[in-house]
Amino acid sequence: MFDFRLKVFYVVAKRLNFTKAAAELYISQPAVSKHIQELETYYATKLFHRNGSRIRLTKTGAHLLKNTEKLMELHRRIDIEMAAHENNSKGTLKIGASTTVAQYYLPKYIASFRQKYPDIQVSMVSNNTEAIENMLTENQIDLGIVEGQSKRQNIKYNPITKDEIVLCTRTSNQLIRKPLISIEELKNLPLILRESGSGSLDVIASILSQHGVNISGLKKEIELQSTESIKSYLLHSDSFAFLSIHSIFKELRDNELRIIDIKGLEFERSFFGIVNQGDMHKLQELFLDHISALP
Asked: Which residues contact residue 251 at a Cβ distance below 8 angstroms, ignoring those fewer than 6 apart?
């Protein structure tokens, strides 16, 4: 149902070449030119600057391209959802999620997805990022939602949202009272760290290494395998830990934990939806679209 003229415009705008666009669309070059001329007549404006065989978008053309991309994405979602409703959206979706994602991010999306598609059965398992990736490649789950820096060649990574990891401690900790410390001061703090294979640990290690700091050189007090156990330990000690901002909203609100910034350091990462390369099916795409469509 998507206007074919806009599809032609989109391909020409991306390729900036009428001949390549014609080949990609399986139509003749004169047909491509005709569709573009019809759009320019309809909108009463030029969409491309032409200089011999070379073309480039006009300001109006760039604006149309931006909106065409939005329209194409909307039509794609409509097609997926209509197909899902037509097929009664039945089936089973096995999701694997890394620890932080499973505890603090994903449950509300699974709940709203089940309300929208009650005939789709959803199950979720939780582990660290490395374990979830292994489960995906071994076909134990259909879809993974993970954090971290890992990029395996046989897995497709679809960015979903941004997350921030922050250094925090209990509010009453007297070791550090100021809100900003240096990287050198960080090296002397007693730290609670996640286990090897944790996506959070991978992000922290990667960013620290960019600033000449090896994570093995930090002062590790203890290693714990879950965010909840780390938070509980923090509330009963004068130690420090790196945690997702998603995981400490309640503790910050209740003034139980406080954040300490590190000069020159920001620990940002993405949450990714992961599937095996070439293995995206309807239910996987439906769930990922559901997440991306909600705040």
From this structure: 231, 235, 257
